[in-house]
Amino acid sequence: MPVSGLVVTFNSPVDRHRETIELLENVPEIETGDFRNGKLAIVVDSPTRQRDQEIWDWVRQMPGVIDVAVAFVGFDDGQIHTGDE
């Protein structure tokens, strides 16, 4: 299960993009966080890498979005890695 921390940058202050933010909030795999200075923090927790990529692509194409920066990506494959493998 991929978990991604992303920063979405808008072309103007985030409060002018309430409709886009509401669309993001309606996606079960997305959790929205703080927004300020035209940037919105989101976390994407999807069941597959393919779904993760679909969400990233969709977010990049949303009205007012000019950039999506990756802050963190983690892949949980259900196994415990100890570093001894």
UniProtKB/TrEMBL annotation:
Pfam families the record matches: NapD
Highest taxon above the source species: Bacteria
UniProt cross-references to InterPro entries, sorted A to Z: Chaperone_NapD_NO3_reduct
Protein name per the record: Nitrate reductase NapAB chaperone NapD
Naturally occurring in which organism (per UniProt): Aporhodopirellula rubra
Upper lineage: Bacteria, Pseudomonadati, Planctomycetota, Planctomycetia, Pirellulales
